[in-house]
Amino acid sequence: MISAHGIGGARDLPISPELAIAGAVAALTISFTVLAVAWRTPRYDAATSGRPAPAWIVGIVDSTWWRVLWRAVGFVLFLYTAMVAVFGKDLLTNPLFGIFYVWWWVALVPLSLLFGRVWRAISPVRTINLIFAKLSGGDPETGVYRYPEWLGHWPAAIGLYAFVWMELVYPYSTELGPVRLWCAVYVALMLIGGALFGNVFYERADPFEVYSSLVAKLSVWGRRDGALLVRSPLANLDTVTPRAGLVAVTAVLFGSTAFDSFKDSTHWVTFLQGSDYINNHSWAPTLVNNLALLGFCLAVGAIFAAGTMLTGVEPGFRRRTLPGLFAHSIVPIIVGYIIAHYLSYLLEAGEATLIKASDPFSNGSNWFGTANWKVDYYFAYHPTMLANIKVLAVVCGHVVGVIAAHDRAVKLLPRRHQLTGQLPLLFAMVAFTIGGLWLLFSA
Fold it and tell me: Which residue spans traverse the membrane (predicted)?
């Protein structure tokens, strides 16, 4: 279950890859053309966009009992996960693997799209930091030191890379010991960071909170000066704060997803199996996969940086700040690929994890009454529907990304470069579209 996830191959995508790629490129081109004609002034402003959420929703969401409820839910899940990590058997029937690779990583995306900053609400490390602060008479919002601005999201980018490395290239990723150690190191680093820098550390350095908060920018929920707002997802997306390391975060998320499908493609498998040198050295496949994962992430970052920086700017404008200012536009592309990549995996492996959760010690227990449930392989019997959803998710993600980039370009670039200056980024997005759909069909 754990190792066989990812984008379905051509056998479950009964549509023409050439037609899908041509349609996606056409959609991007038409979208850009329409925007160039009809969208000539900025439409999104973080200071004015959105309207107050209904009073009854605000009354619930801003209440103490609501916050405590979700803190308790997150902490109970944390305690259960710690229990199966410490006392569970080193078997794939241990629900820890599904919690780690499916619930924690994949399910965080749809939950954040629907409800906003989910991990911030249930984060057990935030809860532990809060408890320590209360016991010591301190304030969880402040730490011993001020969080360095130059550090930005770089710790989160490194943490996300550590997770995808564990998932995709580490040869013992389905053994209990390494997964248990990864989780222990994560908790320890987060608690130390929270003690040193306060809650701002979690906002900027916790890989899962940064991940969830970025995806949440495509939800309808936002805040301004503490007030809960309802915004269009595009207006919400415009509120992403460009910080150091933001481009690295998006490059890791996008590049790792692309590599996950590439490593199962016939081209890559043939290369690995056909190389005598790789086959004759046990360490070689791991090294090559490590280099490929790193290469995918660096390539995504480089292509995006080039697409944003190859434009005209006013004299004195620092061109190297452009990738960060446009990084929000790649978030919908990431979400589109994650939906295409993990949809069937989330539903099937997620259900399997719920079934295994009733038997945490692999001894035939049925704690929650789910042990006798069966996984519903709905999409396995409806491949055309699955194919359409996957292609639609990729295309919609790119179209929304083009819109977000266009609005930011109209706001930032001088008038003479507002359209022509977007062409390099459009070409980069077309390259992402073609590459993503090619991987979708070649896995």
Answer: 19-39, 68-87, 99-119, 150-169, 181-202, 291-313, 325-344, 385-405, 425-441
pLDDT of 368 > 50? The answer is: yes
pLDDT at 6 > cutoff 50:
no
Question: Buried b vs exposed e over 266-299: b needs ≥16 C-beta within 10 Å?
Answer: eebeeebeeeeebeeeeeebeebbeebbbebbeb
Residue owning tokens 């090619």: 438
Question: pTM for the full model?
Answer: 0.90
Return d(Cα 420, Cα 418) in angstroms, integer: 6
Q: 315: helix, coil or strand? A: coil
What are phi and psi for residue 227, nearest 5 degrees? -85, 135
Segment 368-381 mean pLDDT: 87
Calculate the alpha carbon distances from 5 to 102, 346, 443 in Å: 10, 9, 11
For the chain, which residues make up each domain, given as ranges? 10-442
Residues 6+ apart with CB under 8 A from 307: 424, 425, 426, 427, 428, 429
**pLDDT higher than 50, residue 69:** yes
DSSP-derived secondary structure letter, 48: T
For residues 405 and 411, the answer to whether their CB atoms sit within 8 Å is: no
Q: With helix as H, strand as E and coil as C, how does 400-416 read?
A: HHHHHHHHHHHHHCCHH
Tell me the angle at which helices 383-412 and 17-38 cross, rounded to the nearest 10 degrees: 30
Q: pLDDT tens digits, residue range 404-418?
A: 988 888 888 777 776
Q: What is the dihedral of CA 97, 101, 105, 107, to 10 degrees?
A: -80
